[in-house]
Amino acid sequence: MKVLITGGAGFIGSHLCETMLSQGHQVIAIDDLSTGSHTNIAHLESNRDFQMVVDTVLDTQLINQLIRECDQVLHLASAVGVQLIIDQPTKTIQTIVEGTRVVLDAAKRYRRPVLITSTSEVYGKGSKIPFSEDDDIVLGPTSTRRWLYASAKMLDEFLGLAHWYETRLPVTIVRLFNTVGPRQIGQYGMVLPRFVQKALKGDPLTVYGDGKQARCFCHVSDAVTALIKLSQCKDGYGKVINVGSEEEISILELAQKVIAMTDSQSEIEFLSYEKAYTQGFDDMQRRVPDLARIKELVGYRPDYDLSGVIQSTIAYWQNQ
Ligand code: UDP
């Protein structure tokens, strides 16, 4: 198959390109390098089955041309990272909503299956754990910029499902939960690369709030395996599907575990959300995926446990 991967030079996108190439597919990656980077895909550029296009998914003509050439689209291009989203709200909305509209319109024109990556952020302030795909959704107010990310991604989901409903365009929606691993950078807020880099330098690890908020961290290679299997699963069309890990850890415990695993002398310091982000910032306390649907569809089982996920991230930063 020939696949188009939008956001192909990003953290998850670059791993996806690599794995699809290793499975014998041809890959075209498009990325505007806003948060992605050339270094993520530099090792793929000599591969004859790989083509990199540095441009934006907002270019309708280009996207039409690329989708026409391909058998399938995996749409990962998006604004990412809590810090970036609250710093660049208009750009975030435009990239997410308009980018997905352009991709879906072109996919509809050439009848190409599309997998759209959404996010566990859409579960917002939900308190029923674990989060199932058909649960009700509670978000914070529009005056808190964090929630625009979830709202924009929800609109993408609605649009994708609308295309499936109206014309049976094969659309699969995936909600990714805290994906981590090699090549993820801490610049836009992501906690694990930040903690690992600081622990390796012996600098203090900064825990926001009281550190009792908890997350489940999924290794990027498990997420990529799931994305590929789902993109090839016809029973997933017209569905929203969680991808993540079920192993939960509080952020304070994560900081302690990273320090122990790196044998670091780093200390842990606490910072209020107001100082870390902005006034009126809202965090979610817990975020655990219900994986029943993906297990049923593709028999998903992550290879990495939490220690393996952290170890892999440490090994990556030790080599940088
Ligand atoms: N966090 C933290 N210190 C940091 C970066 C993040 O304590 O240097 C916290 C953040 O407030 C959140 C959790 O770690 O509660 C996960 O943050 P991340 O941005 O990685 O993902 P998300 O908030 O999207 O789950």
For the terminal residues, how far apart are their CA atoms? 34 Å
Instruction: Briefly note the structural class of the backbone.
Output: alpha/beta
Tell me the Rg in angstroms.
Answer: 19 Å
- For CATH, the homologous superfamily of the domain at 2-180 and 218-244 and 288-302 is named as NAD(P)-binding Rossmann-like Domain
Quaternary state reads single chain
Coarse shape:
globular
What average pLDDT do the residues reach? 96
What does this protein look like?
Strand 1, helix 1 and strand 2 (26-31) form a beta-alpha-beta unit. This protein is of the alpha/beta class. It has a domain at 2-180 and 218-244 and 288-302: Rossmann fold. The chain starts with a strand and ends with a helix. It has a 7-stranded parallel sheet, sandwiched between helices. Strands 7-10 form a two-stranded parallel sheet. A two-stranded parallel ribbon has the order 8-13. It has helices spanning 11-22, 38-41, 60-69, 82-87, 89-110, 146-167, 191-201, 220-231, 251-262, 273-276, 292-298, 306-318; strands at 2-6, 26-31, 50-54, 72-75, 114-119, 171-176, 179-180, 205-208, 214-216, 218-219, 240-243, 248-250, 268-271. The chain is globular and about 55 Å long. The chain contains 12 helices and 13 strands. The structure holds uridine-5'-diphosphate. Residues 82, 178, 189-191, 194, 206-208, 213, 215, 251, 283 line the site of uridine-5'-diphosphate.
